[in-house]
Each structure stands twice: as structure tokens, then as C-alpha cells.
Amino acid sequence: MNGVPEDLIVYEIALVVPKRNLNEENKGYDCVEVLVNEFRNVGLIVERVLGLSDEFIKWLGMGYKVILSRVAYYLSFLQLAAPLETLGRVAAKMQMKKTTHIGIDLQFEWEEIKAFVRQPDGSLFSWCERFQCYRHLIYKIVNKKNSDVTLKFDGKEIQWEAGKSLLQRLELEGIVKQVFPLHDEIKRKKLLRSWALNWWDFTAQPIDEIYAYFGTKIAVYFAFLGMYTRWMIFPATFGLILQLIDFGSLKLLVFPAFFISIVLWAVLFFQFWKRKNSALSARWHLNFSVSTSEGYKLSGREWNSLQPPLELVKNSGIDKTKEKEALQRYEWFGYLKRFRNDVIIILSIICLQLPFELAYAHLYEVLKSDMVKFGLTVVYLLVIQYFTKIGGKISIRLIKHENNENTEYQADSLVYKVFGLYFMQSYIGVFYHALLHRNFMTLRQVLIQRLILYEVLENLVENSLPYLKYSYKKYRAVRNKKKREKGLIGKIQFATRVEKEYLKPTYSASISEELEDGLFDDFLELALQFGMIMMFACAFPLAFAFSALNNIAEMRTDALKLLAMLRRPVPRAAATIGAWLNIFQEGKWKIEPGLAAILVMEHVLLLIKFGFSRFVPEEPAWVRAKRMKNVTQAQDMCSKQLLRTISGREKAFGGYIRRKKPDGTNKTQSCRNQ
């Protein structure tokens, strides 16, 4: 497994709790001690690490008065590791499905471990699967007694209710401050050398190692970015030739040929990307068995979607009529809620953002001074950031009331809603100059500012902010320690790795941490860039060259950010780029002024078609739920028999099983006769 034995203890999860000195008589009742003991009882390896002090607010209830006091505690970190057997047994308990050597996805069984295919790096479980096992282990520790258990913390009694999760209870009380994944130092340093700091191989990336370390979603993003950048070499070269060579009267032929070639380039690129995506899914043995409906935030306090149709089937009893009616209500109310939310977002864009964008575009056109235009653009970019953040928060609140099936559907819904805000922000001013004024000199200036100024500022901000946040947290922790220990002299060092991880910021999106992680900003940047260069390629052929150089730098800076500046991200199980693929494929628009009416009519019709296809599904929810239920039952019936067959090295072909006789010859027996 890349030189790392699978039985080597690697701490992958950390919990942050306050450190206190306990008396022996109170030790057994302390909630943190109980949590540690419960972790060990389920098979986890726990290591306690003392860190620098931190401050938090302590609430003291005295009658009707509530007093706030700031209490300083030394932080204690609980590092968790799980042996392979612990992970295997909890995976079987979770009914996780994995690919077997005969290519069928079956429910995992620890006793039949030899029947299952291992990961490309040699490990039995991927990082996404291990993370789900950890999450199940730590959050499924519940009070199995028939009565409440009284725990103590700092003189306060805490009731652990029967049947409730202990970790969630301690999170609500503020005792467990954070839960987060840890970097694996051996693998992290290897990726730094072979990926983040390897500038000589411009677009080469160790995708399998990225998948093994960060999970599916991040690996798919970097695979897409690498392929997109490699394919951009052709239009970048073509555009550079058009910019440097004066074709004279041949421009009437060369520029249409350039535009047609980049449209064909885009079509071929996305077709080949789908092929590559399928190949990656097959190589990584992705079977979507890791459920995304539980969310991808490690904390137990994340919000989940409303009850899915399959759960309605299970809970509705044997009355088929009521079952069908409940599913139909669930289905149509869900579609109506999504339609209502989409209308709210569209009207907000048209009534609020569109006038603001047109006012900026008009001011940019009438101003004469380039310096004033530059200053106006900077102010505009700063103001629009706050506007989009507000729009993102509103979208989050709307999505919480939608009946999305799982977290990835919620994330896709958020992408569609928020991208409308960014689309208006990025393109309305450019369309204003291209279609209304037809001033191509001003259009080129706007494109240069958007492609160079915006992307440079974006890269500078997204890579400098994590370092500044880490430096500030580190400075505050050291300052607090020096205040309490006034005689302390010399430099304070962070002795442990987990302490450094705690101070690092998370890989979060600019709009919200609830649904999307930092991949939202990275995909958004690529989508806006792609739309800009595709729609306005003839006005500024050098756009492809600038974008290619930016993407080469983006691959390495994003890698460095993930490996050195941020905490290890929580893995996501999505095997595709999701809603972003649909957004990318809408980027092949034409901007000739004479075809503006056709452009508008085409997209209105496409919007109507897309809206009706989403609003009226091809398959009713109750039919889909019944089919899923039948398939699940059929798979469970034969999975154990197949596992015994595979692990016993018996081979089944065409309804027959081949067994080895004692004399070494094969004996073929029909499966129907068994």
C-alpha cells in the first residue's frame, strides 16, 4: 500500500475537548472519560494529546440570571485510529456494498474478505469508506440502558438520554468543540513532492494517489482540471497565431474557421471527458455504495434532507393505497417547492441584480479615463462579493425546505441557484458592450480585466487567506499562553501535529459551509472562465492562452493549498462533477449581433424544455421506490451465497459452478441443482 503497511496505526480523526485535572473519585463520571472509554469499547485506538490553551464562553445558570464568564482551558485532542478488523466489522454492520472479484457489488462481510477487490493503492477500504466507518463508530455510541445516565463536566451535570448519541450530546453542550479529519504525514509529504511542488510536469498528476488521500470528488476535480488544461493547448496555439499574424483579407475565412474549431473542440472535449470519468469510476471500483444521504460534514449537527421515498415505503406498513398516496404527495410537494424556490431566485436576479449590473456597464462605457474605469471595476468586484454571499445564504435557506434525496442533490440545487447570480455578475456587462454598443475595443478591455485581473486577484485571495487565518490563530494562541504565564520567555513551539491541524482553516466555500466545500469556488472559477473564452473567443483569441497559463498554475497552487494550508477535507462520494457538467455544456453560445434574437429565443425554449423535464418526471416516485425495494431484497438473498462461493475459490459461469476434485480435475455442477 504505497510502502505503508495496512496494519500500521494512522490517526485519521481528531476531537477537540478541554483538558482538566480530575480527582480519581470523579474520573469515572467525567463525560470526556466516558467518551474515551466508549471509543475503546467499539475498537478504536485513542491517543490523548495536550495542546495550547484556548478560551471559550462558559454559561453559568443561577436562578433566572445567566452569567457569562470567559474561561481559559488547555485544549486536549483525542486522536482516533481504527484497526482494519474494526473497520471491516463496522462496514459489514452498515451493509456497505463493495466490488467482488467477479465484478458484482455485494454486501461486505468481514469473514469473506478475500472475495472483495482492493483499492488501487492496495488498501481494502477507500478514504470515503473509511470516513463513513469512522462516522458510524463515533456517532452511533448510544445509551443502551433503559434510563438516563448522569455525567459530569466542570461541576455541571449532563443527562445522557436513553437511546441518544453521546457525541452529539457533548457537541450540543459545547464540550466537544470540533471533530475533523487528520492529515497522514507520510502520504501528505509524498504528494507534496510528486504533485504540488512538481512544476516540471505541467499537467501530469498522480490521480490515483489523490483519490486515495482526498476521496472521489476532489480527485475527479483535479482529473477534470488536468484534462481541460491539456486540451486547451490547441485553441491557445490557434488563438496565439491569430493574434501574432496579420492575415489581411483572409481574416474573413480564418476567424470563422477559428470559431467553428473551438465549438467542435468543446463538443469533443466533453465527450472524451465523460469517457475518462467512466474509466476512473471503473478503476476506483465506484459503486455508489457509500451513501451521500448522511451528509459529508463530520459533525453530527449537519442538516439532512427530508424523509426519502424509500423510507416512506418502509414506514407506511402494508396498506399499498396509503403507501402510494404518501409517495405521490411527497413527490409533487417536492417539485412544487423547488419550482417556487427557482422562481424566487430568478425574480431576485432580474429585479435586483440586473439593474445593478447594467448601471455598472453603462458607467464603464461613458467614463473616459482608464484609471477611473479600473477603480470602478475594483469597487464593483468588492461590492458584488457581498451581494453573492447574501444570495448564497438565501439559497441555502430555500434549499432546506426542498425534498432533495441526498446531500449531493442539495449541493447540485445550490449550484444551479447560485450560478445564476455569478452568471449575471460575470456576463451582463460583457453582453452590454457586445450586443448594444458593439464596441469591440471596449469589449476587449473588459475581457482582459475579467480574465487577468479577476483571476489573478481570485488566486491571490484564495491562497493567501488560509495562511493569514492560520497565522492569526497561531498568534492568538501564543499570546494567550504568554498572558497567563507572565514569566515565560523564549519562542513557543507547537509540539504536536494535531495542534497545527486544529489551527488551520477548513476547505470551505465562500457562500456556505453547509452544503458545498471549497470545490464550489474552484469549479465556479473554471465555469466562468470557460463561458468567457467560448462566447467571446473571436473578440479576444488570446483568452485561451491566458486561461491555459492560469490553469497550469491553478493545479499546483490548489494542491499546495490542500496539502499545506488547510485541514484535510471531509471526503465526498460523488463520482462525477455533477451539476457543473450541465453548466459547462451551456457555454457554446454565439454572440453575433444579428443573431441576438435567435440567441434569446433558443435559450427561452431550452429553459422551458428543461423546466418541464424537471417538473414532470418520467417515473413516479412510488414506482421507483418499489423497484428499489425489490432490487435490494433480491440482492440480499443471494449475496451471502455468492461471497462464500468467491472466497472458496469456486467459479460460477453461465449458471454452473466449477469445483476442484481431489485428483485435480474440474467438476461442473449446475447451480439449479444445488
UniProtKB/TrEMBL annotation:
GO molecular-function terms, A-Z: chloride channel activity
The protein, known as: Anoctamin transmembrane domain-containing protein
Taxonomy, superkingdom: Eukaryota
Subcellular location: Membrane
Pfam family of the protein (one): Anoctamin
GO cellular component, one term: membrane
Membrane topology recorded in Swiss-Prot or TrEMBL: Multi-pass membrane protein
Organism per entry: Gossypium schwendimanii (Cotton)
Membrane-spanning parts: 71-92, 218-241, 253-273, 343-362, 374-392, 413-435, 526-546
UniProt KW keywords: Membrane, Transmembrane, Transmembrane helix
InterPro entries per record: Anoctamin (IPR007632), Anoctamin_TM (IPR049452)
Keyword hit for Ribosomal protein: no
Residue ranges of domain Anoctamin transmembrane in the record: 210-629
